[in-house]
Amino acid sequence: MDIRRIAVLMGKDARLGAANFMAVYVLVMPVIISLLIALVFGDLLAQTPRLGIYDPDASEKFTRPLLDHPSINTTVYDSDAALQSAVERGSEEVGLSLPAGFAAALEDDSAEIAFTAYRWGEAGVRNLLLLESAIAHAMTEGIGSSIDQLPVSVNAEQIGSANTQTWSQRLLPLLLIMAIVLGGLFFPAASLLDEKKNRTLVALTSTPTSLLDVYLSKTLIGFILSGIMGTIILLINSAFAGQVALLLLVIALGGLMSSAFGIILGSVSKDMDTFLGIVKAVGILLYAPGILKIFPQVPEWIGRLFPTYYLMNPLLEVSQNGAGIAEIFLDIAVLALISVALLVLLNSVIGRQQQKLALET
Question: What are the structural domains of the chain?
Answer without folding.
Answer: 3-40+166-360 (no CATH), 47-159 (3.40.1710.10)
